[in-house]
Amino acid sequence: MVALKTVGLLVVRDRKLLLAFSRNKQCFYLPGGKVDEGETEKGALCREIEEELHVQLTEDDLEYYTHITAPAFGEKKGVIMEQDCYLVHRDIEPKPAAEIGEIRFFSSDEYGEQSAQAPGAIAILKILKEAGLVD
Question: What is the CATH number of the domain that holds 90?
């Protein structure tokens, strides 16, 4: 088992969660990515969100929300994603960049209709639904 340390951004609007479509992995997933050696989690998330969504965040914009563990979508079998998820506390206007083909807000049911589903996105949608934040 190999653990992949990652961070994800939670943007909830109108009871739906923002997910980004990766051209590389052909799936919608939580915006964010891997934490590089020597980086803080919040620093890594700020870097990834700038790269993926053209949004500049500061570490003060982010609040830790929860941790998820799930099989890493698009990685070799046996790779587990260990992801800390952070809420952003200001309005942002994300725009797809780099490998991101599209961004969209999803309810749990809407994501369930996708042909490809990332286990981490399923897990965080379940947590947010149980908390009453998304439908």
Answer: 3.90.79.10
